[in-house]
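Q: Hi! First time doing this. I have a protein sequence and I read that you can turn it into a structure. Is that right? Here it is:
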Amino acid sequence: MNPLLNKKQNGDINIIYAWKFLQLDWVLQEMREVNEASELEFVNYYNIRTKGLKASVYNGELLLQSEILKDENNSLVVYSAMPVERREEEVIFSVEETDFGVVPAVLCGKHDLELAPQLRCPLEITLVFKNEPKVKKIRKILIQGGGNGIASIPLVELGIEAGTKNFWMEIEARTKDVTKYRYPYTLFHSVTPGTSAHMYGNVMIK
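A: Yes, that's right. Below is the predicted 3D structure, encoded as structure tokens:
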């Protein structure tokens, strides 16, 4: 690499300008005891965190366990969608900080993944420009709190066909704490999960 170009990009000629895109899947194990699964925290746009959630898949159902569900005043909302084929020039990754020019977006280029310059907000590029994901339908299921904190949902109700091992999902936690904030508590940082699958987690069943 040209050292002058290298210095211009990162200010240190001893550092090579490079990047790597890692797709971090949410792996759900097929097991009856959901309490053995890893817990994910709910977080909102302001990076404020609340109680978490454990999940697994067993006998064609999504099993969920959370302290949030033990309170009858709380609820969880599960959003799901099936993946679609990527198209050229679609944005496959961006976050709110992309709008500020702090974090670059990643595009599906002609031959490989490409970094993109500063873009508009994620929701805007999802609805207006070519952007992953475009889904046929977003399924939404409300789970009311109360009880032992465990709930189950048949995968077919989430629009997931039998034998499917990969789909997109987001889960929103609705508690009293959320009412004072503009953005919801979600597992994968979605700000409008009901209308945009932009930040849904890529679920893999194993």
